[in-house]
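Check the record.
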Amino acid sequence: MTRLTLLSPLPGWVSPLDEVPDAVFAGGMMGDGVAIDPTGTQLVAPCAATVLSVHAARHAVTLRTDDGADVLIHLGIDTVALGGAGFAVRVAAGQRVAAGDPLIDLDLDRLLAGAASMVTPVLVTDADAFEVVDRHPGGAVAIGEPLLVIAPRAIARAAADAGDGAAVARDVVVPLAHGLHARPAARIAEAVRGLDARVTIAKGDAVAPATGVTALLALDVRHGDTITLRASGPDADEAVERLATLIGSGMGEAGPAAPTPAAPPAPAPALPDGMLRGVTAAPGLAIGTARWLASRDRAVARDGAGADAERARLDAALAQVRAALAAATGAAAAIMAAHRALLDDPDLIDVAQRQIAAGRSADHAWRHALRAQADTLRATGNPRLAERADDLLDVERRVLAVLAGEGDDPAAPAYPAGTILLADDLLPSDVAALRDGAVVGLCSTRGGPTSHVAILAAGLGIPALVAIGGPLAEVAEGATLILDADAATLAVDPAPGVVAAARARADAAAHRRAAVLAAAADAAHTRDGVRIEAFANLGSLADAQAAVAAGAEGCGLLRTEFLFLDRATPPDADEQAALYCAVADTLDGRPVIVRLLDIGGDKPAPWLPLPAEENPALGVRGIRVGLRHRDVLDTQLRAILSAGAACRIMLPMVASVAELTAVRGVVDALRADMGVAHAVQVGVMVETPAAAITADLLARHADFLSIGTNDLTQYTLAMDRGNDGVAGGVDGLHPAVLRLIGETCRGAARHARWTGVCGGLASDPLAVPILIGLGVTELSATPALVPEVKAAIRAVTLADCRDLAARAVAADSAAAVRALARDFAGGMAA
């Protein structure tokens, strides 16, 4: 087949797809083609074909041409709701038809009275294999006149010609608690890029290309759904295996969706006049003045200056925004990675390119593509996908700004100091641009607590309340507000006494914080002179800079995974060493404990497909991966050894002495081979009960022990911290966990080794005195909390801490321990 002409199956008026009053069709998500507003009463075959299916509601038919192209004819919009009324089917699945043969008879009067629209898309659905090379220019069309000309794509023809291109398929049950939202979809797309295979994912009758992030989102795949992975081409087997492994791993989100409560929750108590309720997106208290976010929509020209010029403009803008997003650090990095995946989404780009080919400007084409997909995600009814629609609008905004010559980083308007910013909805870039401290709080009519806006606001320390609803619109510009995100309330024009009380609370917190920050650079000693080191957990060079500013005395955990994930090949020794050296230089001689690559389980890497496991958390992860893939381990160890004497080595997920001694042997051999003269400390992370109980055995061979309380807690309590059904019980202050921490400290002390904590408990000021009392002498917290940890150390004596720890391990629950810790903290404050 070189070309095939599809004849008009209906008489009527032809219009482009982007004028169809439905985002799915207008956005091209179902395929390319045209639409016909019919004036006749019979649908006929547009070419010789086989009937693949007729929908149960009789409103749609799918045909396969003799050359393998799938053609969908969808009679009207939302006509599925008619339940077949007004349609009389003349064919059945499997039947051969010739061009002009009747397919469906239409009772047009009845349909026009009952349907939202009878505009009928005629689509070629297999866009990876076939493309529309010519189409009816629009206007009146008679039945049997040429409508579309299609041809096979070159890449599809090459794949079909390949001798080793047999099709492969596999069903996978999705373990992700929140289904396929933006970040998992982006990782799926990245995993198959570069493979010589055509890969699709299907849920029921809906199919999306694996490289199409927005098409994957529109499948509305949820936890527990069964999806089908299909691939053809030379790399088909590898593609399906890679995706099955990646999805089966849970991608860090394994676990059931939030459980349905046994009884509906009690209605929230009524609020007094002037008080609004929302959903907490980022905690904190703010008092300020209401300022409404200005409209972000910009006018764009509909018509372009020629297809070639507009394509070049769009390509240049996409490249510029892509580069800007790649430079993001900290909490924004993962969010911007998902936005970069949207820029690379072939479905979005195809829709925009078709618009440009039709004479539209690059600006109009990009807006059309993004808005259509955003509308589709909101139409699913899935609140998480609705939140992801905001990411599409944010990407639209960035690209349009570049096309308008305004740069790739939308600047925030200048707000007066003390602004509480109000908006119908906020985009991630709205929050990321708030850098001058003038905005002290955020409120929105819509939005959700798991949105990217929520993540960014929390990272910036800006209290945020979302999903307030319509009443927020009644708040006047300039109104005085008290935003208490901890209580999920917004007080509008409160009485002066209420404002004064809130200011007193905020001032007290601010004064305490200022005192803590003023002493951040000083070494931390207990009141009776015991030295406790306060380190920071790092995941990037930017984190290292923040840690130094916060007074960290070293890095207790350098997470190296960010170098290895979301890429097609692993970093070489030079790339790794450059990062380790840069972190060490930033810390200016302070110790840097580099955790060896901790992938597997909830952190798979596309370049190292691991076999699907029934329980990845108990499978090949941590140091087990390194010992099985020695080339990866050796390369990372060479990089660390070449980065200087400040760097120490820490093994993740150790469960036996044999694992530690095996790595020590590799380190010694590499030191000799590289001529490294300085001594290199090698320690272990205590994350398994086995490591805690045998800490004395490990300490014979380790230079230090550092406790990862997050994993130690979930393994001790047999509760998956990513499982919403049990996550509420995953508390590191459970007496069982504390007993294992105490045992670890005792085992290490027998061989004069120090014990630190680099898990979440080290960042919890309530836990600090208990950890000190159990024998911990180093605490590694998130950079922003290092000053608070130091303040907690300085407030206690070792004797008091030991007494508190003894009572904590004797308590009967985590709640009881937290009550003890709060009482202890209150006593110290008094």
